[in-house]
Design goal:
Layout lengths: L1 E6 L4 E7 L2 E8 L3 H11 L5 E6 L5 H4 L5 E2 L9 E2 L9 H13 L5 E6 L2 E7 L4 E9 L1 H10 L20 H27 L4 E5 L15 E2 L3 H16 L1
Parallel strand pairs: 1-4, 4-5, 6-9, 7-10, 10-11
Antiparallel strand pairs: 1-2, 2-3, 7-8, 8-9
Helix pairs in contact: 3-6, 4-5
């Protein structure tokens, strides 16, 4: 069995794999070390694990298990053409690895809708060629509330139309329809060079857009966990 831990900016995703199957997974926002201890106690057959983090190092968590710590020096199942691999977020690495496992030898765009929106392009030759990062949905709402005197904080909820007639709906329309148009534009732009592009949505806000995009997409909420599992297997095969 394998233990996979993915620390994002706001949550820890934890999963236990038996073979290629997730037998248990959770998402928590506190007591990371306690949750890992519980999983290790509950699944004593766990023999290996991988830890990925975009946050500051959690020394207590690291000390609990002999993890493979995902970093820019970790051997990956895909080639990395990023000019600054040491600055590439491990969440983006995990998402690309997961996409490659699901759609081998295909051009893929992963749109990860988390704290930020990350666009990651992997070509059919298995090369990560780059992408883009923009503010996430909650970040956009918080920015308008924080940097103005009167605009209220909103939780995402689709308004009936882009032509809003209340301030609350105007905020929703600006953020949600704006992000939708951004994604459609990015997909169109990347498709010029990769006309057979597979598009995968993942991340906590993917559910907001899975029925809104007009092109064929795939939604996979556990893509990063699958990707980390793939990287751990790749590492074990090279030993």
């Amino acid at each position: 069995m394998q233990l996979v831990a993915d620390i994002g900016n706001t949550h820890l995703k934890l999963a236990v794999f038996e073979g290629d199957t997730i037998v248990e997974s959770i998402v928590v926002s506190a007591n990371y070390a306690g949750c890992v201890k519980d999983f290790l106690h509950k699944h004593p057959a766990i023999k290996s694990g991988i830890l990925s983090s975009v946050a500051a190092e959690n020394h207590e968590l690291v000390s609990l298990f002999p993890w493979l710590i995902l970093s820019s020096s970790t051997s990956l199942p895909f080639a990395n053409a990023y000019d600054t691999p040491h600055t590439l977020g491990m969440d983006r690495v995990a998402a690309v690895a997961g996409a490659m496992l699901l759609f081998p030898k295909q051009d893929i765009l992963v749109i990860d809708l988390g704290t930020c929106i990350k666009y990651n392009v992997l070509d059919a030759a298995g090369v990560f060629v780059g992408g883009a990062i923009s503010p996430g949905i909650t970040m956009r709402f918080k920015a308008m509330n924080t940097f103005t005197d009167r605009l209220p904080q909103q939780e995402p909820a689709w308004p009936a139309t882009e032509l809003a007639t209340t301030t609350a709906d105007s905020l929703q329309a600006g953020v949600l329809f704006g992000a939708l148009q951004e994604m459609q534009g990015m997909i169109h732009s990347y498709s010029i060079n990769y006309p057979n592009l597979k598009v995968i949505l993942t991340g906590g806000d993917a559910y907001l857009f899975e029925d809104k995009l007009k092109m064929s997409i795939f939604v996979h909420p556990q893509l990063n966990l699958i990707g980390l599992h793939s990287i751990l297997n790749h590492h074990a095969a090279q030993r």
